[in-house]
Amino acid sequence: MHLHYLPVDLHTHTLASDHAYSTVFENIMAAKNKGLQMIAITDHGPKMADAPHYFHYYNQKAIPNIVNDLIVLRGIEANFLRHGETDCSPALYNTLDIVIGACHPHVLEGTSFEENTDIIIKIIQDHKVDILTHLGDPLFPKDHEAIISEAVKHNVAIEINSSSGVTSRLGSTDNCIKIAKLCKKYNALVSVNSDAHFCTNVGAFDHAFSILESAQIEICDVLNSSPLKVLNFLKERGHNISSVLFEYADNLPKIRY
Ligand SMILES: [Zn+2]
Ligand SMILES: [Zn+2]
User: Is 53 domain-assigned?
Assistant: First the structure.
């Protein structure tokens, strides 16, 4: 049976990024209503023009890891910078549950195909990001095959972004299909996410599902197919995930794909 459902969304924005429009709690309730078991809050890093002060990222520990029976991961979508730097410091990486990241316009400008490729490969090697988000953005051309093969070596996941080519980064879809096919070829870990900038889009994965289908990737093989799989991945990546959370995730109803 082909079940078109994933219980986890690891890429959502709140009004802490001024160009997104819902609160953390609205995202949580929207996720609950869709039957999700886990979301990550991943607002844009401090180098984006409308990002919050860095206190915002550190103090996410104020948000409980379980709210209304939903697992809530505290995260960031870091901005990739020149020379393989990001705007998420190692100290911040260690306080957060999850760090996703990408090249974003107005933060990184005027970089070449070679520079974009080198930046991302250095970030993978330097352990600065857990999931590479919206890699298919045509604004930042890059060597997808070199990046994906390096990501596999370093246990970094590749996102198939359900907003790319639909509401954001128009013209991404052909790249996303190529990326998904490379993920299949290299057996890369794939993460499907909404990149919601409004709560009703939390858990909306339809566009990404059609891309997975083009690459013959099974939904059950995706990182977000179980909260436990996500927690194990984040622990392997060096995040400090509490045993309480593992226990909680282990007791959730399992999804049968
Ligand atoms: Zn982004
Ligand atoms: Zn985003």
Answer: yes
